Amino acid sequence: MSDHADITDKIIFAAVRRGLDAVRRQPRLAPDCRCHYCDEEVGAAALFCGVDCRDDYDKERAAIARAGRAV
């Protein structure tokens, strides 16, 4: 017979698994030698030209998601 701690563990692990699955389903950016925010040229493996562009891109995407629009 399961006790309350075992049942709670199952609930928590199921919630974590659902969250991880949701994150894994999100589309990922692919490097294309251009900054994904300002379109400046970057190295072959880089996604952004710097931390500022990366942060601004994340903030913009979060605002779009909060507004209920497709990202």
Give a written overview of the molecule.
This protein is mainly alpha-helical and 71 residues long. The chain has one domain. Helix content is 54%, strand content 0%. The chain has two helices and no strands. It is elongated and about 60 Å long. The relative contact order is 0.09.
Q: Secondary-structure blueprint of this entry?
A:
Blueprint: H1 4-25, H2 51-66
Number of domains: 1
Radius of gyration: 19 Å
- Uncertain segments are none
Mean pLDDT: 91
**Main sheet, how many strands, which sense, barrel?**
none
Shape: elongated
Treating each run of at least 4 consecutive H or I residues as one helix, how many helices?
2
Percent of residues in helices comes to 40-55%
Q: How many beta-strand runs? A: 0
Secondary-structure class: mainly alpha
User: What's the N-to-C terminus distance?
Assistant: 45 Å
Topology as H/E string? HH
The amount of beta strand, in percent, is: under 5%
Protein name: DUF2116 family Zn-ribbon domain-containing protein
Organism: Janthinobacterium fluminis
